[in-house]
Input
Amino acid sequence: MTEAGVGAAAGAAAGAGVVGGGGAGAAGSVGGGRLPRVRGFAQWPSAGSPKAEGKALRERVARAAHAGLDADSSRPSAVEAVEESSRGRLPELTPIRVGRMAATPFAFLRGSAGLMAHDLARTPMTGVRAQICGDAHAANFGLYGDARGDLVIDLNDFDETVQGPWEWDLKRLAASLVLAGREAGADEDTCRKAAHDAAGAYRRTMRLLAKLPALDAWNAIADEELVSHADAHDLLGTLERVSEKARANTSGRFAAKSTEPTAEGGYRFVDAPPVLRRVPDREAAAVAASLEAYLTTVPEDRHPLLARHAVHDVAFRIVGTGSVGTRSYVVLLLDHRGEPLVLQVKEARASALVPHLLTAGFDVPDVDHEGRRVVLGQKRMQVVSDVLLGWTTVEGRPFQVRQFRNRKGSVDPAALSADQVDDYGRMTGALLARAHSHSADPRLLAGYCGKNEELDEAIATFAVAYADRTEADHADLVRAIREGRIAAETGV
Output
């Protein structure tokens, strides 16, 4: 059996870890024969031991095997991968995306989730399925405001989210930590340790969650306990500074900088090309009209809140590194006092992981709306999500809708000091385990990951090797730009 095909073979043994699994609805009864089994709920008493099933998976896929990274003749070049991922994007923005990816190897990794998925599909997998981020690099964790204005820290980008192998998220996180550490000037031992510690925190957190009652595990590791749990005390000062900035990062502040009053007494966005630009009336009207459909995807208890705001303007705004070239709008809403609420209406493309999941032998559920996929994936992984998350369709294209600048803040992992990189690795590893445990049984994953550091060592070895590969890819892209084989616009 090839290692890449292990996912399909392990499916039966890993059934308890499949999203939506549990076998409920089968014949028989519970409660001493008094009540029927209820579809959507587990059997009682539970059949088998998820922890034992997890341990048994080690016979199929040794934990040490996760160190492997084999070359593949079908692997596209860096330029081919960038060009393929640019299909369907706005062509005038592609050079900006290429320029951002060419900035550093870490930036290249951030924009190449599909290329890494190609490589991961050829690595060992247990077959345990979870709702994965799909792009769980170190810069995709951050702070944001909850419904009461308190700050939460969690994964915060879900464009690529899909049901897939938990290992892919962990390996992408670990490799990104090595690249970020190198960019920050940390030595190789420190960079490797960050990847090792991220895997160790993931493993230990999963073991902790496996021991808790299901309801307690679902909400475990509150944000105020995260630093202590991850032993990330060197990050405290950085997190405090990021939190202070995040509290000021609001719709109101963005609107104050990006809008101007109109003769009619309202406000409109001000052109700031190429990042922010006004759009033709027809395009603005289509985006505004799509908010009616968006309302049907938001819980009804939020409708009175949205009904107290009027739509005033729509503009196009470039975002991110991997998202550059997709259609993304900001919508200005004002309440009765003229206070702003800004929504982001962002195009939702098919996850770049899908073709590679199929290569790896994973079944991929049909998606009826890519915006819905993103929103539901986010809600499955986060403990607390944006209360205004939803989705809509604009001129036949799927979009996700969310608050823009709802007290968001992030740590730049490439700007951390050497003594903070491994702390950040432990913190993000713990957060990733918490996110995965919402859809995969933590008992199953804890059984596989085990007590010793065998998995941690393997993930760290993989991360260093993949960081080396990414640096080579980045060098190829920079060379292609210099030789005029692909256009790039820098400094945007």
Remarks:
- The two ends are 48 Å apart (CA to CA).
